[in-house]
Amino acid sequence: MEQDEPRPRPRPRRKDPDRKERVLDAALDVLAEHGVAGTTHRRIAARADVPLGSVTYHFAGLGELRAAAFTRYVATRSAAFSALFTGVETREQLVEVLTDLVQQGPARHRSAVLGFELHLAALRDPALRALTERWTRESRAVLAAFTGPEHAARVDALLEGAILHALLSTTPEPRERTRAMIDQALGPVDDPFTSRSTA
After folding, report:
1. pLDDT (tens digit per residue) in 11-22
2. What is the CATH number of the domain that holds 162?
3. Which of 44, 86, 95, 124 is deepest in the core (most CB within 10 A)?
């Protein structure tokens, strides 16, 4: 009786516990480079260096993947935005932080482009609109701790427009002009900076 030939040992499965997060990061890279219209499963898989099936395994469709990627982006940006104000104790410091945020917009091109891609996509996708509304609430809450809610809404709108202008402009806005716009949006100099909550 012939002995059975030894069966080939199964190939070990590649352990890749961070694959889903890598796919999300790759999706954000593709969104920043190609925009929402140019984002595909294949481009994301290639950027993440994973099989195409891995992308569709983790996310039912491109819409779900896009929403998950933008959610990851908003969480990261909200935390980074809040961290900018650590140690801010005076109006002067606040103005400088906000001026830096606008002036450094082009240097943070990927992040800024993603923010505007999200807002454009949200015009047609109610689920993404809920995400942009949450982001706005969180950003304004951070600002309101220093300025009060009325000025926070005004400054938030100014920041979005100024950052977009900085991205599109071929001539950088002088820092002093940016600083003056932000200072004016904060209200009169005699407004009490201590109106922020210290509880």
Report:
1. 444 566 688 999
2. 1.10.357.10
3. 44
